[in-house]
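JOB MANIFEST
job_type = single_chain_structure
chain_count = 1
residues = 180
[input]
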Amino acid sequence: MSPGRSRDRFTLTVVVAAAVLVAIALAAPRIAQANLSEPAERPEEAAQPVALHGVTVPDRSGSDLECRPTSQFASNEQQWDCGETQVTAKYGQTTDDPSRALARFVRYRLLEREPDTSVIEDLGGDARVARVDRPEGTLVAVAVPRGNGSVYVEFAKGDAEAAAQPLIDAVRGGEFDDEQ
């Protein structure tokens, strides 16, 4: 290899290295700013009634329970952030065994292997409630019959029992019997 070619290769290497260093120096402030700045938050949605398929969950005063929706789209399953309590509602088809249907919903929510009907309490008709003690707190799930299906409402975290009680009382009181 001739000395001229070696010098040209060395010059090219130095120029490329310098260009890379300049690009890094120009991009570094933007990269640092992107990593240090607060993540872009989506606008907080206003509180809305916790409702699905004609079942509106009451609060302790008898009004509609209003919480911030966390679901991003309309579907047969919706979620709400009610302070320390998380509420999930899902519509599903009714089976011949409403206790087993609610146990399957609880199994689905807890990712368990087998449905446990021993935690199910009959509220009258096809309405049921399940209470499951977990290390993170009690999970309460209520099944409210609606036409050919049921709305399954889960209360988790925080004081799930207190949040669920108005719905349980409404179901026991027959508030959803005529609304199919």
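[summary]
Strands lie at 48-49, 51-52, 55-56, 66-69, 77-82, 85-93, 120-124, 127-134, 137-146, 149-156.
The radius of gyration is 28 Å.
exit_status = 0
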